[in-house]
Each structure stands twice: as structure tokens, then as C-alpha cells.
């Protein structure tokens, strides 16, 4: 929304809230900056759009028909516009404050802070500055903001995705149902249009920008959907961790996918990489050449050695 339109809508709301009697369209036209003073048709179109947009976001514009007047009047009843008094128990306020604190350093920090400020202005004390509770949500994945907005707006998305244990990147088109955090990683759950089935995607494997498709409200999320159960089901029960020695300054993709990276001896770092299929892991690590060395487990190390010997032959 443009700044000019935002100011016009805000002025319209203020005008209709401040009046003690309904105002005609012509009176609103004269009182609210931004409406065309000369073109009647352009004003009527713009005024109708503005009324519809305000109603869509929940602002109750009432229409009054006076039998002694030719044109209807408009106003916003303050009691219908304002929120009722907010009363929360101390534990409920603590939960809200904790939720805002979770997003304090993430991409939703501004929205969370604004919501907390509004509650404080309404008399709800939800400040956890003195609390021993400390939570953070890590959303460093670049794809998170776009996917979160797509889930909120129910818009399709398209992105390039690298499958586990593979360097190949495929284009995926998805109807996003939700974004879930599990074991420190973020996952997208949705309907894969290309495969015609529900799928789970790890955000750290999305490469490049996420593109939105179509208009908001383009699909419906299935009722009774358990996103957390779907994410848990997608992860194989025999998932293991490989310890990989990585040369400093190299293998950025592996470092990003690893669940932990720590300093190692000399010019090496040590990364912990989750995997379920040793052969698939070997195909990925072998492509990194001399910059990655598997230390454990033995079957993953042997699988990489077989790949490298095969390439040498």
C-alpha cells in the first residue's frame, strides 16, 4: 500500500470516528485530504474502495439513511471500533510476554514488539525483563519471512530445493500449510503441486529467493492437520550423525546444513551432519573432494572411500 493511500485511509477513519453525526459522501470528500475535488466519478470509485478495504480489516463503518436527506451518512461508532477492556491473569500475561521475547531477535521482532506495546498501553503488564525465562527462535534461514507470509496469506510459492545428500537442485511448487520448528531446524509443510502429495521441506535446503504465486486465499488448508506430526514422520527413525572434518573456509553448504560446527585441529573444523542413508551422504561428501573427510561412523567413511576409488578408476 502506498504512503498516500495509507494516509487517506487513516484520515478517513479519524474523520468518521470524530464526527458526532453521520457525514455524507460530499462532506467526507471535503474533510478528508486525498480525494479528487473535481472528478465526481473518480471520487465515488475511490471512496467505495476505501470503505470496502476498511470493512475487510474489521473497521465497522455504519450507514445511516435520514428520511429528510437525499444521501446516506457514514460514521464509525467508537464503542464498536475500540477493543473491549483486556483482562489477563498473571500467568496469561507472562505467556504473551514470553512469546514476544521469543521473536525479539528474529524477523518478526517489530510485529511482536508492537503487539506487546499495545497490550502495555491497555494496562496489561507482560514485561519479562526481570524474568529468569529466556527463549530465542533462530530464523536465520533467508526463506523464512517469505514462507511465513505465504502461509498467512494462503498463497502458493515456488523455490529451488536441494534434496538431502544431493547437490542437485530442483524447482518445487508448493501450497504452504505451515512452518514448523523441530530440533533447532525450520520446516515447511505443504502440498507439492508437482507431485500431487503432501511434502515437508527443510528451510536450510532452499536456495535462492522464494517466489509467491497467485492471489491470497488461493487454497484451503486441510482441517485437523497436525503439522508437527507430519514433520516428525518425514524424519526417518534411523537418522544418525556423521562427524566430518572440514577444511577452514570451504564447504559452506555443508556447514550450513550441519547441526553443529566446532574448531578442529590445525586448518580443520569438525561438523556434525545428520543422515539416514550412508550412500547418499557419501555421494555428497565425495563431491567436496579433499576439503571434507569423514571421521565417523565407519560405514559412512567406507562409502565415501568407495566413491572416491570409483572416480579414480
From TrEMBL:
<feature type="domain" description="WCX">
    <location>
        <begin position="242"/>
        <end position="312"/>
    </location>
</feature>
<feature type="domain" description="WYL">
    <location>
        <begin position="143"/>
        <end position="209"/>
    </location>
</feature>
<dbReference type="InterPro" id="IPR026881">
    <property type="entry name" value="WYL_dom"/>
</dbReference>
<protein>
    <submittedName>
        <fullName>WYL domain-containing protein</fullName>
    </submittedName>
</protein>
<dbReference type="Pfam" id="PF13280">
    <property type="entry name" value="WYL"/>
</dbReference>
<dbReference type="Pfam" id="PF25583">
    <property type="entry name" value="WCX"/>
</dbReference>
<dbReference type="InterPro" id="IPR057727">
    <property type="entry name" value="WCX_dom"/>
</dbReference>
<dbReference type="InterPro" id="IPR051534">
    <property type="entry name" value="CBASS_pafABC_assoc_protein"/>
</dbReference>
Amino acid at each position: 500500500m502506498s504512503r498516500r493511500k495509507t494516509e487517506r485511509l487513516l484520515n478517513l477513519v479519524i474523520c468518521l470516528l470524530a464526527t458526532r453525526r453521520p457525514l455524507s459522501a460530499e462532506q467526507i470528500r471535503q474533510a478528508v485530504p486525498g480525494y479528487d475535488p473535481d472528478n465526481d466519478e473518480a471520487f465515488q470509485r475511490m471512496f467505495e474502495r476505501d470503505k470496502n478495504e476498511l470493512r475487510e480489516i474489521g473497521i465497522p463503518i455504519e450507514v445511516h439513511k435520514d428520511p429528510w436527506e437525499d444521501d446516506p451518512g457514514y460514521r464509525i461508532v467508537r464503542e464498536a471500533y475500540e477493543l473491549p477492556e483486556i483482562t489477563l491473569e498473571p500467568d496469561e500475561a507472562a505467556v504473551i510476554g514470553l512469546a514476544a521475547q521469543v521473536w525479539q531477535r528474529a524477523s518478526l521482532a517489530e510485529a511482536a514488539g508492537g503487539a506487546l506495546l499495545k497490550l502495555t498501553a491497555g494496562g496489561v503488564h507482560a514485561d519479562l525483563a526481570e524474568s529468569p525465562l529466556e527463549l530465542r527462535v533462530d530464523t536465520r534461514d533467508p526463506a523464512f519471512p517469505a514462507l511465513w507470509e505465504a502461509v498467512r496469506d494462503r498463497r502458493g510459492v515456488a523455490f529451488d530445493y536441494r534434496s538431502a545428500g544431493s547437490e542437485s537442485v530442483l524447482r518445487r511448487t508448493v501450497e504452504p500449510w505451515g512452518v514448523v520448528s523441530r530440533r533447532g531446524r525450520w520446516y515447511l509443510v505443504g502440498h507439492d503441486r508437482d507431485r500431487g502429495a503432501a511434502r515437508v521441506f527443510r528451510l536450510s535446503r532452499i536456495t535462492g529467493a522464494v517466489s509467491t504465486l497467485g492471489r491470497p486465499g488461493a487454497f484451503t488448508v486441510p482441517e485437523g492437520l497436525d503439522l508437527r506430526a507430519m514433520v516428525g514422520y518425514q524424519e526417518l527413525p534411523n537418522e544418525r550423525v556423521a562427524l566430518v572434518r572440514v577444511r577452514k573456509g570451504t564447504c559452506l553448504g555443508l556447514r550450513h546444513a550441519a547441526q553443529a560446527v566446532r574448531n578442529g585441529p590445525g586448518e580443520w573444523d569438525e561438523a556434525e551432519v545428520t543422515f539416514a542413508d550412508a550412500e547418499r551422504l557419501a555421494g555428497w561428501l565425495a563431491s567436496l573432494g579433499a576439503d571434507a573427510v569423514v571421521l565417523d561412523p565407519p560405514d559412512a567413511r567406507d562409502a565415501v572411500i568407495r566413491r572416491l576409488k570409483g572416480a579414480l578408476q
